[in-house]
Amino acid sequence: MQNSVIVENLSKNYFKKEAVKEISFTINENEILGLLGPNGCGKTTTIAMMLGLLKPSNGRVVIHGLDIEKNRISLLHKMNFISPYIELPKKLSVKENLIVYGKLYGVKFISERIKYLSEKLRLEEFINKKTGELSSGQKNRVSLAKALINEPSILFLDEPTASLDPETGDFVRSFIEKISKEKKMSILLASHNMDEVKRLCKNVLMMNNGVIIDKGTPDDLIKKHGKRNLEEVFLKLNRNNHELK
Amino acid sequence: MSLNRIIGLFLRHFFLIKSSLPRILDLIYWPTIQIILWGFISKFFTTYSDYYNNTVGVILTCAILYDFLFRSSISFNMLFLEEIWSRNFTNLFIAPMRISEIITALVGTALIRTLIGLVPAILITSPLFGISILNLGIPLFFLFLSLYIFGITLGLFVSSGLLRYGPAFENIAWSSLFLLAPLGCIYYPIEILPDFFQNVARGLPLVYIFEEARSILVNQVVNYSNIKDAFILNAIYLFVGISLFYYSFSQARKKGSLINIGE
Asked: How is chain A split into domains, by residue range?
């Protein structure tokens, strides 16, 4: 299988603090890779470097064979990102927001694309409503529509179901699962929801203090550490790490 | 540069303005009040001073020109601040937009915001005070263009600070033009300033622009050398402003301010 993303010895230092320390991994075509770790472990910093938002101190990110530092604009056409920490302009309607981002990503048939996404993500009933007036579940689906407006081949999902009710969370997870298979996307999923990670991800990276402390398939990790589920593996690895510190 | 992306960013702000009547009224309100206030002040001066034979015309025209500068600079900054306030900054910078496209889109959108505010104010000067800024003739176009370039340049300086330091730089965005106003010699000739400040003021395009406006209105003399000097200085400042914006973007990528801006 072909690597869509190659991360090589990636590091980021802020003054004397090392936020990410020489991490390396790959994401294959049609793979959802889980990125797990406690708050502040370097997940967001890693994603930001992969999106070209942050300049690495060392190492490189290669996407579809091209270095993101040298080909930022052309690669951003093929990528997108969703995070609960960033929002779409609240005073614009859902449709207006999607038109704007369709234009920014150079989407050719914007109306058709919006119609397709509205149907798939059930946006029709509030497509003309202001984004700021939506519930968090509706906002989440709109953000997902924005993240898919350019039909990305690489998608970064930072806690995509945080603060969602179980029904909406399940809808979003099923949608991600379906679309990643249909479109053969490579997805990096950062989440604190272990069931979600186990359900969606083929492979998982465990991060702590800016380094990858373990990796493997969810089942292999559970077996390797002699635990009942991924959450117990997560807790064990992080406690060990605290003790080592 | 992609026209599609420039239009996209323009639309983001166009949709915002068109959907909000309070926003449109806010854009119109301040320039109108400013012009009415200066209209009455200058009318009072006309009665009690014979320094200018056309006091109302000179002061009011300069007030309109200064407001145009002020609005264009503030509009540029506001467009940038809107992205920070709406927490949309990261979305914008992960979209495949070149810095040159961002600047171009903001320059166009800032002009529209400025005109929405200023056109009604200009229109009321004629029935209220019997003054038309069009009396400046063809040079008016060059004066407006020169002021707009300088306004945008100041906007670029401030936006560079916002990009690098985040919302903490917001106060500078509001106060930047007030700092330059005394040195710009908007309502008085440069000779009023102390010698040291005269030298500083000559390094600003504003002095030449307002000197030219007064020259036309008071002496009916068009002095194109003033317009030329203003454009030369503008070109230098604009080059520095654009370079600084690129540098700030690069620094923001190094320091990580693009990730957590607005938080």
From this structure: 3-78+154-244, 85-151
